[in-house]
Amino acid sequence: METKSLTAADIAEGLKKGDFSSREITEAYLKTAKSRSGDTHAFVAIDEAGALAAAEASDSRRSKGGIVSRLDGVPVAVKDNMLVVGRRATAGSTILKDYVASYDATVVARMRQAGMPILGHTNMDEYAMGSSTETSCHGPTRNPWDTERVPGGSSGGSAVAVAEGSAPLALGSDTGGSIRQPAALCGTVGFKPTYGRVSRYGLIALASSLDQIGPFARSVRDAADLLAVIEGRDPNDPTSVELQPDWALPESFRDRLDGLKIGIPKEYFVSGMDKGVEKAVMAAIRRFEELGAETKEISLPHSDFALAVYYIIMPCEASSNLARFDGMRYGARVAADTLEGTYRKSRGQGFGKEARRRIMLGTYALSAGYYDAYYLRALKVRRLIANDFVRAFTGVDCILSPTSPTVAWKLGEMLDDPLSMYLQDVFTVSVNVAGLPAISVPCGLSQGMPVGLQLIGRHFGDRTVLEAAHAFEQVSGGFGEFIPNK
Amino acid sequence: MSLKPEEVEKIAELAKLELADDEKESFREQISSILDYIGKLAEADISGADPMSHSVPVLNVLREDAVAACSKETRDAAVGAFPESESDMLKVKAIFS
Q: How many Cβ atoms sit within 10 Å of the Cβ of residue A428?
């Protein structure tokens, strides 16, 4: 069975009509995932037995007329930092290489309750620290459009799985762009919900005030359907919130955008952007106008500080979160003569370069004498950035920008130049700093590689963002236009 | 700003990380250049700005400190994850020596 061009909605429809069973479609995805592993390496582990058992259970429910959700029987992949009971979750790190989860992450439990077979775990940058999926202890993932190039990151494996047809849907996590940027670089839809919309329980934490789980999909509708399965308050994550009725996702999205006001931030259209990216995004702006939306230039005056704020807050939180990996209760232990020596060896050998670099940076910024100058100052500028958005959203409903300043680059190109790699996140980090929802949808090609368009919404205005992206997708051709090596 | 080699040693000690000798120098250069970049925050006018640690206002969320039962499978999985153990107990180096 051909998986390359199917959306989750197509699969749901096929299951409903009896064109195929969940077992058949799940087998088809498992087969594609296995056959692509040597080329792109999207998955680090495939759970064939678990996925097929869930698929058979779904088929049996359906035969009795009792499906439990719109996505019952539709398979999904999860990033390797999300816990699935009895399965390894490594976060791409040597220190967790043999760690087996003893419980399900809330998002995983909810997908199970919705009847979705879980295909396996997808590759990622170690601890989600990176924009290229090159720093995983399992080796790099490659872009299906050109395997000499990176897929973006850190959720590169999930983006690739969806782009190449190894999974119709996947979950990623986004701390500074880790869903949206790989979605853009691989030509898929990637959505980061408003902070607090989705529980982080069972997600191996990078930076707790910025991390949010969200869907990769081949259409905006599919992304919204997966979000509907995983969202909502969870007592195990006190930062997850009770969803209000007017935040609910609609059954269907409108096709016109009359009355919608879209802001174009002038600070995002300055130097450093690829010409091809700029051209594709400018053409997309005209499409939105044809759909009835009104576009206008806006200003987010503190944009220039966003990356600096992010690269203080994120390593500070990461250095604190990663303190738990000490070789004591779980994870790899490298024994030394003393307890202190065991800590230092276990962490020194268990963490890769980028993880250690960020732990060092965070430890420094939080250390005595530097806290006020770095961390506290960053929290204050964070407020100014959030206020820029509050002000902008009094005049517009959503904000449009490129997702990434460039298309996918060659493997190895920036691996030893962390600052250049960090600059790739320039358009995405502000959204996490302010806790807003944002989507990336494909909007064209440059140098034969996909370009992503980002739409940012108000706090809990996830629906507006999805609605605008859906309407754009209808006129731009959608996923059918973005199948690698078609 | 440029970190001194002894500052790198000090941070590694605080972070409980063993670094290889060649890494000490490459980390020193890389972290120094990142600090130069984030130093631009000194230009921001932060007068009157409240520090923002979180986008959703969350106060301390407390629960009863009650023992919750767990299944044998969950217990076995947690014990099975110990790097070193003796019967069912976690084995670590002496803390006081």
A: 31
Residue B63 maps to a domain: no
Domain with B26, as residue range(s), is: 5-43
* CATH label of the domain that carries residue A455: 3.90.1300.10
Pairing of strands B85-86, B89-90: antiparallel
- Give bridge partners of residue A172 from the DSSP assignment: A214
- For the record, the structure tokens of A382 come out as 């964070």
Tell me the one-letter amino acid at A263: G
Cβ-Cβ contacts under 8 Å, B82 against chain A: 329-330
Backbone conformation region of residue A402, classed left if phi is above 0, alpha if psi is from -120 to 50, else beta? beta
User: Structurally, how many domains does chain A consist of?
Assistant: 1
184-223 in chain A: CB under 8 A from chain B: 195-196, 209
Residue corresponding to tokens 């009725």: A245
Contact state of B31 with A102 under an 8 Å Cβ cutoff: no
Structure tokens at B61: 């969320």
- pLDDT tens string A149-161: 999 999 999 999 9
What residues are paired with B94 via a beta bridge?
none
Distance between CA atoms of A333 and A335, rounded to whole angstroms? 6
What is the number of CB-based contacts under 8 A between chain A and chain B? 162
Of the candidates A436, A394, A209, A393, the one whose C-alpha atom is nearest the C-alpha of residue A309 is A209
What is the ipTM for the molecules in this complex?
A: 0.95
pLDDT digits (tens, 9 = 90+) for A367-416: 989 999 999 999 999 999 999 999 999 999 999 999 999 999 999 998 88
DSSP-assigned beta bridge partners for residue A393: none
Q: Is the pTM of this model over 0.95?
A: yes
Asked if the Cβ–Cβ distance from B61 to A386 is below 8 Å, we say no
- Domain range spanning residue A421? 1-486
Please tell me which residue of chain A has the smallest CA distance to B32.
A361
Tally of domains in chain B: 1
Please report whether residue B90 resides in a domain. no
Tally of helices (H runs) and strands (E runs) in chain B = 3, 2
Active site residues of A: 79, 154, 178
A330 contact residues in B (CB cutoff 8 A): 78, 81-83
Contact between A411 and A477 (Cβ < 8 Å): no
Tokens of A48: 């064939």
How far is residue A195's CA from residue A193's CA, in Å, rounded to a whole number? 6
> Is A320 touching B (CB cutoff 8 A)?
no
In-domain check, residue B49: no
